[in-house]
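Feature request disguised as a bug report, sorry. It would help if multi-protein outputs had a clear separator. Right now it looks like this:
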Amino acid sequence: MKSDMTQDAQNLSFSRQVPPKLEEVKSYFNYLHIPEAEAEVFYFYYQGMDWKNETGTPIRDWVMAADEWVWNLEN
């Protein structure tokens, strides 16, 4: 299913530029049927991490990071 989400995201007009705008993140989470509050948690978590992952590697594609975040929520 994860690959379906990623494929669908590629069909939308979300900029993958990091950092994203909060409104883009909210729109994407809304598209995935995830509450807006969770989009804000995701956004501010990575904003606080300077858009780096837990190992300190810069995030180059926030949509992929969001897909992983949502997958972790559901599993």
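(second protein starts here, but nothing in the output says so)
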Amino acid sequence: MTQQFAERATNVAPTGARNAELSDLVRILEDQNRRKLDVIAPASALRFREGNVHVEGVESLITEDGVTDVDGIYRPTAVADEGIADKLRIPLAYLRRMRAENVPLLDENVNAWLREEPQRRFMLRAFRGESGPGMPPSEGVARALLSDSYKLMDNFDMLLAALDGVKQSGHPTRVTGCDLTDRRMYVRVESEAVAIQAPELLRGYRSPFDGRNGDELPVISAGFVITNSEVGSGAYTITPRAVIQVCRNGLTETKDVMRAVHLGGKQDEGVVSWSGQTQRKTLELITSKTADAVRTFLSREYVEAKVRQVEAAAGKTLDEPTKTIEHVTKTLSIGAEAKDMILSHFVRGGQMTAGGVMQAVTSTAQTLTDADQAAALEALALPALTAAAAHG
């Protein structure tokens, strides 16, 4: 399985993985956990200088492992900039323009709004910079600026709890791919033991990747995708996902998603350290919910019912496919570049039906290097099917 890893600089924890193995995802998450720093700080302790977040006057955390210094310089990611814009009510497009064209004006704007409410508290999620012997700490990374009531549900802990839930469900499964971005973690799980025949859905379809024929392999297997965000970009979710074997296209059914949101109570100022009991209760709940969701999503009855629903619309023949795809992409706000790719995949797929549009959307999603964009496009496959069938 191909892998792509992104690391912005030597002092930054690795943040990216696309189509990675589970073992590689675990390695990255373990390294990130070693660098993480989460702190509740008042606005009076935060300042922007040269476009970076400066933390000043926050008490260090002293533990048996040593002293955790909080004060320092943290370079914001794009996600952190979005949180800053949201929390200070600065239009995001304007903040981005200032960062690109006039950083001193960005500093002035952010600091002015921070001074308006000096006692207002935020949670800053960051990666610590590292330093060598006798050297000052290097610049860290500001990952997100969040509400002080944001509940920490970290990727590594959530992954282990979810995999425990999968194990408790008793279904034979395998992890087929993992993605990690600045925003989210994605873990795709599949059970080939729960596979059904779907000849109507795959009649006449060819894989746009290798030309294999859906008539010869009309099989769909059950699965789901686990997602979580550590930076406020979404809840922990388990979403059912059917996998078409001839091309590995994935169909996610977002209407049936199971979710757990990152909401908690107000927290004291300083470095955030969850108690063992609080964390244990949260993870036990995640494990239990995951096991329940897996038992539902990996049942043959569930998969068969969903496939039959899709088949009803997928067989609709399209009189003017190009116009239909134009309509579908406009309706779903899919950009011009993705629209052209979808049209190309539609032609190579050979199905001149609404189902062919659905397949073209999911196969295009597989080719995107941005995991967040790929997941968002895949989630539009079933709405695209509905829109294509209605347009005709």
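Even a blank line would do. Unrelated, but nice: The chain has 13 helices and 17 strands.
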